[in-house]
């Protein structure tokens, strides 16, 4: 009778060890800290802050409008940029009198403090690309100036600002 129960106990012990180590593995290899430089994402992210980003965020689902992403700058892949996704493939994006429209509807943007000056578009986002903007539109070098962001350039989804501790907050 003892042999019958000995084997399941060992299996449960191995599964428990695996389940305990899995979150540690994901935290170490699935996330990365990034340093913020510049005023393009103010007031949400400021120069000197650090953000925690999830590398595997888009393995099961695609990017969503409003996500803050870290990506390789298309004009110089040695640089990392941080911006917010505004337009998805097939979306028509337009800025009229500083207001953002997606698919001809005014986009509600609670994360943005000031309207952008000027107009842009309308432009249709091509398949495999995204339209990204900084939250501080007048101080942002973004898709309005260098074009769409290829999805292949995305490195991670930024999920929280963690440094300095006084500014710790979730993004989005």
Give a written overview of the molecule.
The structure is a single chain. This protein is 19% helix and 34% strand. The protein has helices spanning 2-30, 143-146, and strands at 31-35, 50-54, 68-72, 80-87, 92-96, 99-102, 105-106, 120-124, 129-133, 149-150, 154-163, 169-170. It has a single domain (31-170), classed as Umud Fragment, subunit A. The radius of gyration is 21 Å and the shape is globular. It is built from two helices and twelve strands. The model has no long low-confidence stretch (mean pLDDT 82). With 172 residues, the protein is α+β, with helices and mostly antiparallel strands. The strands form two sheets. Strands 1, 2, 3, 4, 9, 10, 11 and 12 form an eight-stranded antiparallel sheet that branches. It has a four-stranded antiparallel sheet with strand order 7-6-5-8, with no helix packed on it. The relative contact order is 0.20. The termini are far apart.
Which labels suit this protein?
single chain, 172 residues, alpha+beta, Umud Fragment, subunit A, eight-stranded antiparallel β-sheet, 2 helices, globular
List the helices and strands and how they pair.
Blueprint: H1 2-30, E1 31-35, E2 50-54, E3 68-72, E4 80-87, E5 92-96, E6 99-102, E7 105-106, E8 120-124, E9 129-133, H2 143-146, E10 149-150, E11 154-163, E12 169-170
Antiparallel strand pairs: 1-2, 2-11, 3-4, 3-11, 4-9, 5-6, 5-8, 6-7, 9-10, 11-12
